[in-house]
Amino acid sequence: QVQLVESGGGLVQPGGSLRLSCAASGFTFSDYAMGWFRQAPGKEREFVSVVDWSGDYTYYADSVTGRITISRDNAKNTMSLFMNSLKPEDTAVYYCVADYILPDHYTDSGQYHYWGQGTQVTVSS
Predict the structure, then answer these.
(1) Beta pairing, strands 92-100 & 32-39
(2) For residues 83 and 20, is the Cβ–Cβ distance under 8 A?
(3) d(CA 27, CA 5)
(4) CB within 10 Å: which end of the chain, N or C, has fewer?
(5) Per-residue model confidence as pLDDT tens digits over 37-76
(6) Which residues pair with 80 in a beta bridge?
(7) DSSP letters of 40-83?
């Protein structure tokens, strides 16, 4: 059974940092691209970042480029999202996603077969 379990969400002040983690099981982690989407209240789900199976190729949404770093550890079946200089507009539920090989349209949420339950990130003073 495939499981993606996010952790690390919480309340942080503007300008602060947070690290999200995703623990994966039930599939061959090293064969899959891994990524993050987020959804703010009243808004559509949006792409944040994705990393290919090897960790060599990473992609970011324009809104987070320069502030967020994605990484993965294939030996531990985990993926992380390091977020810095957080802004109130980063407030959202963050979802871990996975799909076999990096999708051609990696910003499209419909391309990802597996989803976690999400973790809340709130950026507020």
Answers:
(1) antiparallel
(2) yes
(3) 13
(4) N
(5) 999 999 999 999 999 999 999 999 999 999 999 999 999 9
(6) 21, 71
(7) -TTS--EEEEEE-TTSS-EEE-TTTTTTEEEEEETTTTEEEEEE
- Please say whether the dihedral angle defined by the alpha carbons of residues 105, 109, 115 and 121, taken in this order, is positive or negative: positive
**The one-letter amino acid at 17:** S
Assess whether pLDDT exceeds 90 at residue 103.
no
> 33 near 50, Cβ under 8 Å?
yes
Instruction: Write out pLDDT tens, residues 24-42.
Output: 999 999 999 999 999 999 9
Looking from the CA of 58 toward its CB, the CA atoms found within 13 Å total 18
By CB neighbour count within 10 A (0-12 exposed, 13-18 middle, 19+ buried), where does 35 fall?
Answer: buried
Yes or no: say if 8 and 20 are a contact pair by the CB < 8 Å rule: yes
Q: Give CA–CA dist 69/79, Å, rounded.
A: 11
* CA 54 – CA 33 distance, rounded (Å): 8
